Amino acid sequence: MAPTRHRPWLIRYVVLLGVLAVAVPLVTTGVTGPGSYLPIARDDPGRVTSLITTFVRAVTDLSSLVVVGALASALFAGKARPVQDKASRRQLEVAEWFEPVVVRRAATVWAIGSGLLIGLDSADSNGYSLGKLADPKALRFALLSGDAGRSWMVAFVAAILVLVTCVLSARWIGYAIALWAALVGSLAPVVVGQILVGPRHDFGSDAGIVQTLAGQVLLGVAVVQALRVATGRRVRVLDRVHWRSTSAVLLGVLVATEGVLLWFKLAGSSPFASATGWLSLAQFAALGLVGGGLVAVYRGRVTSGAVLLAGGAAGFVAAGLAMTRIPPPQFFVPASISQIFFGFDLKVPPGFGALAAQWRPNLLFVTAAAVAIAGYLAGVRRLARQGERWPVARTIAWTLGWVLIIVVTSSGLGTYSGADFAVHMAVHMALNMLAPVPLVLGGPITLALRALPAAPKGAQPGAHEWILAFLHSRPLQALYHPLFVFTVYIGSYYALYLTNAFGALMRFHWAHQLMNAHFLLVGCLYFGLVIGVDRTPHQLPSLAKLAVLLGAMPFHAFFGVILMSDGAIIGQSFYDHLEVPWKRDLAATQHVAGGIAWAGSEIPLLIVVVVLALQWAIQDGRAARRIDRHLDSGLDDSHDAYNAMLQRLARRTESTQERR
């Protein structure tokens, strides 16, 4: 039963949990003191700097959690109403007022805190007291010498974008963009934190990324729904059946990723032998409270469920913040140069045998593939239950595309893509030009629109309407403009490899994953425009599709020629610092990479030309059969109209001749 009255005690309880979530890391910082810095060869910035930084970090992280939770609640659990813009496009508007108010207030705190942490966290990580930051040279060094300050710059920009978007717009798509920005801003400080250090940090980083995304959504929604209960409002998630399964999946993801992170951070030690282990166990206990709260809410015990949800969320965040102030055991495990950059050692050169045998799961892309395939098969199954058939070829194509992604990122190709430039180029060519082809032939958006039922007239919009609002939105119109897609598709290689960006990004696992995701997404946009099953905002005629396809070939060929020339070695500084147990010839490797870029671009594009020709033939055949059916049924009178026109012309000619 939905709550209908205020619960002042619950409001005080939520506030108390927030205070405790801030107090736990503060006490941890005060107790550890210089022990947080000296063991890892860092200068102690002083108690004042460390305590202020910890306090601002705790408040900032809590506010970002509330921002994500309020945005997700407004988008996927709150009320929305259909509207039409000036171009008569169907859109949705957020019809709630509680979540938008929460977003604006929390985003303001998040922006202020992130702005302060640009300087505070830079000083804290460099061992500078706050007074020392008054020196412009010291301030500049602190901001530019590490990743902490830059990560908070990203968070600050994200918070400002969320705040401005939600102040100026009530459109559903605007809130969706704000949610994307909030998740990016939440990830920035995480990916450059403890999960970036030590052997096996590739597993730790991927687990940390997935956990942050899932945790911000699930725990953020839990906190916002607890606030709704406390202020006497209805728990909107009860109106959405899909939230039951979604929350269960997110909770399972949090438990699984926390297990991976515990294994990574402990580095073989006992969980009872370090503060990191105890705090991680506390996070498991907090997730248990969250699970109990979800069960209570969905069984109708809303108030008790809100108590458990808020308590579990606060406990999880508090333990996580405390862990950021304590060096984990993996910090003290000796690491090779290869482990520092990649998280693992490479013991044999990248021959064909090694590329086939040296498998190492890429957790981020394996997780994405599992979710994508499972969701697609669920849609196919729902269609089958409705008595509709979905082409088997499309299901095979979608599955094949994700299998290719797993093979490319988790086999020896992915393992050696960081150490060998030729392998790296093969991976990016496969993600950009090979895997997207079967993915766009799978038609996932078309499947979703057919499998998800449309909301009845007068009912709240659901997933079907959300997809339509996204497809009809102006941002997607701009993103999918053919000229923009073509420019990004061609320019990505030149911008990455012919500048200093490549060498800088290769030092970080998260940056390598970002490159992989970028090339995959851009490839899907490009080939979706040319041969995709899903309808794009800008439909191109057949000849324009062929022109877009053939127009890319000379640019990729020229890029391959540049790599094969005797120019500067791309990423030379990075490769010079990398220690591998085999002899390398960077110039020869780059020459091979150029050949891969040349041939690797021509072959997939030729395959796509064949697919495009087959699509034309199928379309022409359908059009011919449709005309034949009209003629056979007598519904098409175009032939009779043509004959009548000829007769009129003949009579007009005869009349003219008679007058002469």
Q: What attributes characterize this protein structure?
A:
two-stranded antiparallel ribbon; globular; 27 helices; mainly alpha; 660 residues
Summarize this entry quickly.
By secondary structure, this protein is an all-alpha fold. It has helices spanning about 10-30, 45-75, 100-125, 135-145, 145-170, 170-190, 200-230, 240-265, 275-300, 300-325, 335-340, 350-355, 365-385, 390-410, 410-415, 420-435, 435-440, 445-450, 465-470, 475-480, 480-495, 500-505, 510-530, 540-565, 570-575, 585-635, 640-660, and strands at about 80-85, 90-95. Strand 1 and strand 2 form a beta hairpin.
List the helices and strands and how they pair.
Elements: H1 8-32, H2 47-76, E1 80-84, E2 90-94, H3 98-126, H4 136-144, H5 147-168, H6 172-191, H7 201-230, H8 242-266, H9 275-298, H10 302-323, H11 337-342, H12 352-357, H13 363-385, H14 392-410, H15 412-416, H16 421-434, H17 436-441, H18 444-451, H19 463-471, H20 474-479, H21 482-497, H22 501-505, H23 509-531, H24 542-564, H25 572-577, H26 586-633, H27 638-659
Antiparallel strand pairs: 1-2
Helix pairs in contact: 1-2, 1-7, 1-10, 2-3, 2-6, 2-7, 3-5, 5-6, 6-7, 7-8, 7-10, 8-9, 9-10, 13-14, 13-18, 14-16, 16-23, 16-26, 21-23, 21-24, 24-26
Characterization of this structure:
The chain is built from 27 helices and 2 strands. By secondary structure, it is mainly α. Strands 1-2 form a two-stranded antiparallel sheet. Strand 1 (80-84) and strand 2 form a beta hairpin. Helix 3 packs antiparallel against helix 5, helix 16 runs parallel beside helix 23 and helix 21 (482-497) runs parallel beside helix 24.
